[in-house]
């Protein structure tokens, strides 16, 4: 019996080491989702990270869909591992406050005045998405749409000023593939030229702050975080009008440790660091190290975590925006006939 118990411990240890190795790969995969070439259409969408892409270059290869990003395995959607504030697919959320396009659909079929070029470009993107399974910056989605879903209409889109620059962006969630193919894209538009560009591409689990900062939740939560969902933090660069990653946040959930003490005996929960006794300690990773020190750095308590976050959120709270099912009818309601 003692030999069996020892073997069991070894197998559990190997399992957790494997999970940790997978977690190391997730951010790198997410980073791959930030790149990708665009196919030039009449509405001239381009990725600011790929400046060579323009309407004058219609032969750009569609490499975006190969940079699918996060891990291949489906997350356990019934798990307690959810994070308050993230707008997951299918969430029924209220509109953001203000006079932006997030207050639509417009039942009279009219787009807001003064934004004709912007909304015309957004409408073309959405119609191409709905009718042709194509997203600029990601490519042709036909081959990766799962057969057990009803089609492109299970995806979602929203129009709101998510970067707090006073102009509305288009947010598109592509969800009807394996998790590895899921993508969230934020498009912006130059109203003078009618040219759109990509501000951010990430796994579609965004939390929006009022000052434009975004938490992009990881596709999986397979470490020690438990009820805390790890994320990458992005801030909006007003000069380039794109998002820059500033760091990763992960955590250790005390309840997870106490429920799995035997398996985690080599990695005990740091009770001495959890001075506020809220049951969590946090790992704050600088974006530049690409998580080389994953869970090897010292954890911090909630006060240090909140102080780190405050420098980017500037004391603003999270806001919600209204997502619509990606149907031709909803596109017409939002952008006009």
Features:
337 residues, 21% strand, globular
Summarize this, please?
With 337 residues, the protein is an alpha+beta fold.
Map the helices and strands:
Elements: H1 2-32, E1 45-47, H2 116-132, E2 134-135, E3 139-140, E4 156-160, E5 169-174, E6 183-190, E7 195-202, E8 206-209, E9 214-217, E10 231-237, E11 242-253, H3 254-259, E12 280-286, H4 302-313, E13 318-319, E14 324-325, H5 328-335
Parallel strand pairs: 1-7
Antiparallel strand pairs: 2-3, 4-5, 4-14, 5-6, 6-7, 8-9, 8-13, 9-10, 10-11, 11-12
Helix pairs in contact: 2-5
Structure, explained:
This protein has 337 residues and is an alpha+beta fold. It contains 5 helices and 14 strands. The chain has helices at 2-32, 116-132, 254-259, 302-313, 328-335, and strands at 45-47, 134-135, 139-140, 156-160, 169-174, 183-190, 195-202, 206-209, 214-217, 231-237, 242-253, 280-286, 318-319, 324-325. The strands form 3 sheets. A 6-stranded mixed beta sheet has the order 1-7-6-5-4-14. Strand 2 and strand 3 (139-140) form a beta hairpin. The protein is globular and about 60 Å long. Residues 1-44, 46-85 and 88-114 have low confidence and may be disordered.
The tally of structural domains comes to 1
What would the average pLDDT be, to the nearest integer?
Answer: 74
Q: Radius of gyration over alpha carbons?
A: 21 Å
Order of helices and strands: HEHEEEEEEEEEEHEHEEH
The neighbouring-strand order within the major sheet is 1-7-6-5-4-14
Task: State the end-to-end CA separation.
Answer: 73 Å
SS field, number of helical segments: 5
Report the oligomer: single chain
Unreliable stretches (pLDDT < 50, length at least 5) are 1-44, 46-85, 88-114
| Helicity level | 10-25%
Shape: globular
Percent of residues in β-strands = 15-25%
Number of strands: 14
Derived from helix and strand composition plus strand pairing, the structural class reads alpha+beta
Biggest sheet record: 6 strands, mixed
């Amino acid at each position: 019996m003692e030999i069996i118990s020892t073997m069991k411990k070894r197998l559990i240890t190997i399992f957790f080491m494997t999970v940790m190795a997978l977690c190391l790969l997730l951010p790198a995969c997410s980073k791959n989702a930030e790149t990708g070439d665009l196919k030039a259409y009449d509405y001239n969408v381009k990725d600011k990270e790929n400046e060579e892409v323009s309407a004058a270059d219609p032969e750009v290869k569609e490499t975006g869909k190969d940079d699918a990003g996060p891990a291949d395995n489906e997350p356990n959607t019934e798990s307690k591992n959810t994070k308050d504030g993230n707008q997951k697919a299918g969430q029924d959320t209220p509109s953001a406050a203000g006079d932006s396009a997030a207050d639509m659909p417009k039942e009279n079929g009219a787009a807001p005045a003064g934004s004709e070029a912007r909304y015309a470009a957004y409408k073309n993107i959405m119609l191409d998405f709905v009718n042709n399974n194509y997203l600029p910056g990601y490519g042709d989605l036909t081959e990766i749409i799962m057969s057990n879903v009803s089609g492109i209409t299970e995806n979602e889109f929203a129009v709101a000023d998510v970067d707090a620059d006073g102009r509305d962006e288009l947010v598109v969630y592509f969800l009807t593939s394996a998790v590895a193919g899921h993508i969230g894209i934020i498009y912006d538009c130059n109203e003078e030229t009618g040219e759109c560009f990509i501000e951010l591409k990430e796994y579609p689990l965004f939390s929006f702050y009022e000052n434009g900062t975004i938490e992009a939740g990881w596709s999986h939560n397979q470490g020690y975080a438990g009820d805390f969902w790890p994320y990458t933090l992005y801030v909006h660069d007003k000069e380039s009008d794109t998002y820059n990653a500033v760091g990763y946040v992960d955590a250790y959930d005390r309840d997870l440790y106490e429920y799995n003490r035997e398996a985690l005996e080599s990695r005990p929960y740091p009770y001495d660091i959890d001075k506020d006794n809220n049951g969590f300690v946090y790992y704050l990773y600088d974006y530049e190290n690409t998580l080389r020190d994953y869970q090897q750095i010292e954890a911090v308590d909630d006060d240090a975590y909140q102080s780190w976050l405050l420098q980017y959120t500037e004391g603003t709270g999270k806001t919600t925006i209204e997502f619509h099912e990606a149907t031709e009818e909803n596109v017409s309601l939002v952008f006009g006939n």
